[in-house]
Here is the input.
Amino acid sequence: MPGRRGTFQYRPGTYMAAANILGITVHGAGGHGSQPHNARNPVPAAVEIAAALPARIQQTFPATEPVVATITQLRAGGAAENVIGDEAFIGGSVRTMDRAGTQRFGSMVEELAQGIAAAHGCTVTVDFSELYPATICDPAEADFAARSLRGLLGEDAVTQREHSRMGSEDFSYVLEQVPGAFLHVGASYPDEDPAASPTNHSARVRFDDAVLPVMAAGLAQLAHDRLAG
Here is the structure.
C-alpha cells in the first residue's frame, strides 16, 4: 500500500523486484485454415505456453519467493482469417526477487516452451533478458535513513514495509555498487485514498507538489546526518 501524503516508506533487504522482459516466438508452417493437417499452426502452441506459465511457476518457485509473470502481448496471423501464419509471438513482463530467481525462471520457461512447441510440431525461440536487477537496500543504510527522517519528521512519518514491491527501479544498479537505501514518499492529494490512487505509470496519476518541501528537508537532513557521522 502506498504511504500517506508526505510520509516515507522503506524496507531493509529486497525492496523492489527485478524487471525482466520475456519474448517467445513459436515457429510453425503456414497454410490454409481449411487444411490444418497440412500446416503447423503456431497459435495453439503459443496460447498453451501462455496458459501453462502460471502453473509452472507454482511448481518451480516456493510461495516465499514470489514471481510475477504477466503476458501482455500476443501477435499472430495475417490479414485474412482463413490463413494459418508461420509464427506466433507472446511477450510480457517477469518480476523476480534476485538474480538467482531470474536465472531459474529463464531455464524454466525455455524448457516449458520447447516442450509445448514440440508437442504441436513447432519450434520455438525464447528471448529472456534482465531489464533491471532487484533493488536491494543495505540494512544498515536503510535503518540510518529511517532514524534520520524520524528525527526530523516524527515517528509516524516513516514506516517500514512488510513486503517487497513487485515494481522495479533502475537505482538498483547503484545499490549493486554502493551500500545504500531507496525510499518512497507519498505524494497523493489530500482528498485521495493513497491505496486507491492511480499508480505512477497511469495516465490518470496526479502528484501533489506540496510534498516537495518535505522531500527537500528530508534529503537535507540525510546529508547533514551522514556528514555529521
Q: What stands out?
A: The first strand starts at residue 8 and ends at 10. The two ends are 33 Å apart (CA to CA). Residues 99-119 form the longest helix (21 residues). The chain has a mean pLDDT of 94.
